[in-house]
Amino acid sequence: MEIIDPPKGPRMLLARKLITNCSSVLAEELGRATQKRKEDHNSGRLLLEECLEEWGVPVNLIEVRRTPERAPYLSWIEGTWRNNPLPGISLGHSGKWAVCALIEKGWWIGIDAEPANRGIQKNTFDMISCGDELDWLRNNPDQAIRIWTAKEAIQKSERMGMNLNPRTILLDKYIVKSLVYDDLMVSIAWRRAGENPKTPEDELLELTRAAMKDNPDFSIGCKTSRNAI
Fold this sequence. Notes:
The chain is 28% helix and 26% strand. The chain has helices spanning 35-55, 131-139, 144-157, 200-214, 223-227; strands at 2-4, 12-18, 62-66, 72-76, 88-94, 97-103, 107-115, 175-181, 184-192. Strands 1-2-6-5 form a four-stranded antiparallel sheet, with helices on one face. Strands 7-9-8 form a three-stranded antiparallel sheet. The termini are far apart.
């Protein structure tokens, strides 16, 4: 794992790792996916494991879930009875590299990377931009890879993926930073977090907490409280 210096902002951890034929306890079952797809996915999840260990998160107690839009997020495994906040995550891969980003609680993050010298055909620019930005991009084609990775990072930080049309994304309306690390153009976007989907345990813990707040004498049935009656 190679750690990439993050931009100024909330606490973050950015890293990359060479894609290999590997496995991860956080990997999903991909069924009939190609070998390349499995290597991309598993390498990203193994990198996520290593980043979580660096962050101090017990990997054996968490799992990766997805929103209805397929955005990945961390959740405590059912049965651990924990709901303290976990870092936001984002994953990606390009060429020979997997990339991963973590961000402190209260934020969502998106990361995207492409080879810094990758060219993008001018006839595809109108799939990325429109209006004044499109005119500017046609006059500055060397900036296309930065614009593209920045918008991909924003799509991930908003947890919308391609449901957020890149042509409608105005970069100055978002927090997004791009940098060149070795041979990669890396873009990172972050925003204040919304709500993750709740698990049944989350809901029960919230109800219990509310009951304890409303009733100082509230107690959960257990051997100690029964013997005190």
